[in-house]
Specification:
By secondary structure, the chain is α+β, with helices and mostly antiparallel strands. About 40% of the residues lie in helices and about 20% in strands. The chain has a six-stranded mixed beta sheet.
Length: about 180
């Protein structure tokens, strides 16, 4: 497992899993802009799309996904150094009220014009305003436990969190120490 710096100010990182050429952020953004991949995904998940979002037109879902992906990419990647990522990322568990070491977080678009955004970027919080992206998904159900593809994202988050704990990474200082050791 490797970590790619996404922003110059080192506030945003992305995991590059073993045997992968790209980091997870590049991979999910590529998927969310791939019409063939999206068509296949929405055809496989049309019941969820229809029941939760009341959308039955796969082409509309593809269009909405690409549009939301572009907005989310601008929000995440094209941020200024003084952007507060705390306003973008929120605790994965909506009921979490206290900070935890290496908390699991999610980012999604707010205030979308047509319907709530189903795009999610998942991350581990190193320090306030500093995150390591572990993956992302199109979430069409109320909870992540309801579908295999979102369960995979939960498992990836836990895998990265456990890797960090196993390597004594608990904050940005220990993360930098780890990066210095391996290089």
């Amino acid at each position: 497992m490797e970590f790619d710096r996404i922003t110059e100010n080192e506030h945003l990182w992305a995991v590059r899993y073993d045997d992968c050429l790209d980091n997870v952020l590049d991979t999910i953004l590529e998927q969310w802009n791939d019409v063939s991949w999206l068509r296949s995904f929405f055809k496989q998940n049309i019941r969820d799309l229809a029941s939760y979002f009341k959308i039955t037109d796969v082409n509309q879902a593809i269009y909405d996904t690409i549009e939301d992906s572009e907005r989310l990419q601008c929000l995440i990647i094209d941020i200024s150094p003084d952007t507060d990522l705390e306003r973008i990322f929120r605790p994965l568990d909506n009921n979490r009220t206290a900070e935890v070491i290496l908390g699991k977080e999610k980012a999604r678009l707010r205030d979308t014009p047509r319907h709530a955004s189903w795009l999610r970027i998942y991350a581990i919080k190193l320090n306030p305003g500093i995150y390591v992206i572990t993956g992302g998904a199109i979430k069409l159900t109320r909870t992540m436990q309801e579908r295999e593809h979102t369960l995979v994202e939960l498992a990836k988050m836990e895998k990265v969190r456990q890797f960090m704990l196993d390597n004594n990474i608990v904050d940005m200082d220990s993360f930098k120490d780890y990066l210095t050791e391996i290089n």
